[in-house]
Specification:
Helices cover 41% and strands 14% of the residues. It is of the alpha/beta class. A hairpin with a 7-residue loop joins strand 13 (395-397) and strand 14.
Length: 408
């Protein structure tokens, strides 16, 4: 029996899948592909975190069902992190919850607060879950230009005036995936004042809070007085401690929103594996010099990428945070679009990047480059790109045949 499923119909084909399939075929043919496409940390977690996991997994009682809201010790550690990092007091019992990564937390909160036809404001370009979590839940998404500043605020004004029904929630993501832009407290103050006035919830994704390269660490929107009345913020161990596969993240903030998320999760899961939660507690409570070490590695990789692309004739904006660079497609290839350019870069330079259109229509014309290989490999990637760009006049888009590229 063939049947169309309503929620699946609302999800477009995953743009990144085309590049991933092409990458898999190339590797199967034993080609040396340098993967700068996925934001997948390649460094191991710090040893003291792994040691705590190994120690805890030896306890026979640690293999039972865990706590859907997260073990108390981890929620207390999360509260302590917010206190020392942002000077924000969080009640670990009522204002904090452990999630199976920030992605799961956002998706389940979307299920909790979204009714069919509700309008959610999401940045564009943005990480796909920021909009599709709500689309899956039956909502409608109105896009706001992702860059923090006057254009963002003008977009909020227009959304309130022209949206029926009135928007329910606004998604924020700074430092941004994919654009690497950072917001300051002045911007957050404007957004909080606006959303309080119009009774719009704020859902902040702060997953890259600890990967920054300037002297001033990125702030939390919860530092703004009154933000807690309307805000939930998501963080994660994935990038901070190189623990992406462990799937442990957090949500803190407004008690009512945290309670709604907790109720949905109580029906769906029993929480992350207890030894993982204990190890995450060790990560938050333990020495933090490992985080600075990771920042140093990412900074070195960023500098190698920027220097190499400049030498290749592809100057791009220097990211001040995240493990990504957001790069406009080189002018000779601009007409191809980001997906076709990404596929061409993979086939000709053996470098995988993420096409910008996969992050929303306003991402078209850009690619996201991840700092997910070591410095030597990144330098090799920029050398490959330099040789490829030197041959730019050989390639033209074949508009008649879609994505195929022909050589002159």
């Amino acid at each position: 029996m063939e049947q169309e499923f309503h929620k699946i119909k609302r999800l477009p084909p995953y743009v990144f899948a085309e590049v991933n399939e092409m990458k898999a075929r190339a590797r199967a043919a034993e080609e040396d592909i340098i993967d700068l496409g996925m934001g997948n940390p390649d460094m191991p977690p710090p040893s003291h975190i792994i040691d705590k996991l190994v120690e805890t997994v030896q306890n026979p009682r640690a293999h039972r069902y865990s706590n859907s809201r997260g073990i108390p010790g981890l929620r207390r550690a999360l509260s302590a992190y917010y206190e020392r990092r942002f000077n924000v007091a969080i009640d670990p019992e009522r204002e904090a919850i452990v999630t199976l990564g920030s992605k799961e937390g956002l998706a389940n909160l979307a299920q909790a607060i979204t009714s069919p036809g509700d309008i959610i404001l999401a940045p564009n370009p943005s990480y796909p879950i920021h909009q599709f979590g709500f689309i899956i839940a039956g909502g409608a998404v109105r896009h706001i230009h992702a860059a923090p500043g006057p254009e963002f605020m003008e977009g909020l004004e227009r959304a309130v005036v022209y949206s029926v029904p009135k928007p329910t929630a606004l998604v924020l993501n700074y430092p941004s995936n994919p654009t690497a832009e950072v917001a300051d407290l002045d911007f957050y103050e404007e957004v909080v004042a606006f959303c309080r006035q119009h009774e719009i919830y704020i859902l902040s994704d702060l997953a890259y809070s600890e990967i920054y390269f300037d002297d001033t660490p990125p702030p939390s929107v919860l530092q703004v007085p009154g933000a807690r009345d309307i805000t939930v913020e998501f963080t994660s161990c994935s990038k901070t401690y190189a623990m992406p596969g462990w799937r442990v993240g957090f949500a803190v903030g407004n008690e009512r929103l945290i309670g709604a998320l907790a109720r949905v999760k109580s029906y769906l899961d029993y929480g992350a594996f207890t030894p993982i939660q204990v190890a995450a507690t060790a990560a938050l409570n333990g020495p933090q010099d490992c985080v600075e070490d990771m920042r140093r590695v990412y900074r070195e990789r960023r500098d190698a990428l920027i220097d190499g692309l400049n030498r290749a004739g592809w100057p791009i904006t220097v990211p001040s945070a995240t493990m990504f660079a957001w790069a406009r497609i080189p002018e000779p290839f601009d007409a191809m679009g980001s997906l076709q350019f990404s596929k061409l870069l993979l086939s000709e330079a053996k470098v995988a990047v993420a096409p910008g259109v996969g992050f929303g229509e306003l991402g078209e014309g850009y690619v996201r480059i991840a700092l997910s290989e070591n410095t030597q490999r990144i330098r090799q990637a920029t050398r490959n790109i330099r040789r490829f760009l030197a041959r730019a006049d050989e390639f033209v888009p074949d508009h008649a045949n879609g994505l195929r590229v022909v050589k002159r």
